[in-house]
Amino acid sequence: MAADTDANSEHRVPLSRERVLRAAIVLADTGGIEALTMRRLGQELGVEAMSLYNHVANKDDILSGIAELVFGEIALPSSEDNWKTAIRTSAISAHGVLRRHPWASSIMMSPTRVSPARLLWMETVLKTLREGGFSAQLTCHAYHALDSHITGFTLWQASIPASGQALREIAATFLRRLPIDEYPYVGEHIEQHLAPPRPDDQGAFAFGLDLILDGLERIRDRD
Question: pLDDT per position in the chain (223 positions), as tens?
């Protein structure tokens, strides 16, 4: 038995800040940010909760750390593309990352939790807009329009209790109960959600993003 214990100890992956933060992301992804506690995190890593404090200061440090890692997954606007393509690609990447980590949007909205990765993204987006011919004032408005679309749309999607087939079933049930004579356009709207997407339909997020980018381009060219 002692030999088995020693062998297990030899093959155990050493605890590190990176490993703690990666495990915290998995916990938050699967159970929501509420599931992320020091005790639960220790259990997932097979250690006592007190051992975590050798690698992270406290839970707030963990939240900052996982926000940094998640934001680091977002593709930065490429200097090799024109401004519109670069911003669009990065925004779609940001939306995809935040969809994979639904808890992250609310954490990143905190004004006290601006990580180096977020600062780099902000700087690159702002630089792309300025070098794309936008004035400082228009760049300020453009950045907030883009940021609010990414964050707001993702938070809205995260608030929907179901997706895929489950969401279609909810919509179908609602449609059957809807007084269609009173709300014909609501019914039409729901039917659109139930219809299979067209091959050229990139989704509501991309649709709204393109409206913003096209509008910004028109304003830039007009000024």
Answer: 444 444 444 446 789 999 999 999 999 999 999 999 999 999 999 999 999 999 999 999 999 999 999 999 999 999 999 999 999 999 999 999 999 998 998 887 777 777 899 999 999 999 999 999 999 999 999 999 999 999 999 998 888 766 667 778 888 899 999 999 999 999 999 988 888 777 776 788 999 999 999 999 999 999 7
**Domain ranges in the chain?**
2-56, 76-222
Give me 140's structure tokens: 């300020």
Q: Judge: domain 76-222, CATH 3.40.630.40.
A: no
Topology, domain 2-56: Arc Repressor Mutant, subunit A (1.10.10)
| Secondary structure in 3-state letters for the chain | CHHHHHHHHHHCCCCCHHHHHHHHHHHHHHHCHHHCCHHHHHHHHCCCHHHHHHCCCCHHHHHHHHHHHHHCCCCCCCCCCCHHHHHHHHHHHHHHHHHHCCCHHHHHCCCCCCCHHHHHHHHHHHHHHHHCCCCHHHHHHHHHHHHHHHHHHHHHHHHCCCCHHHHHHHHHHHHHHCCCCCCHHHHHHHHHHHCCCCCCCCCHHHHHHHHHHHHHHHHHHHC
- Alpha-carbon span 172 to 11, nearest angstrom: 52
Query: Which of 168, 78, 180, 173 lies closest to 132, judged by CA?
Result: 78
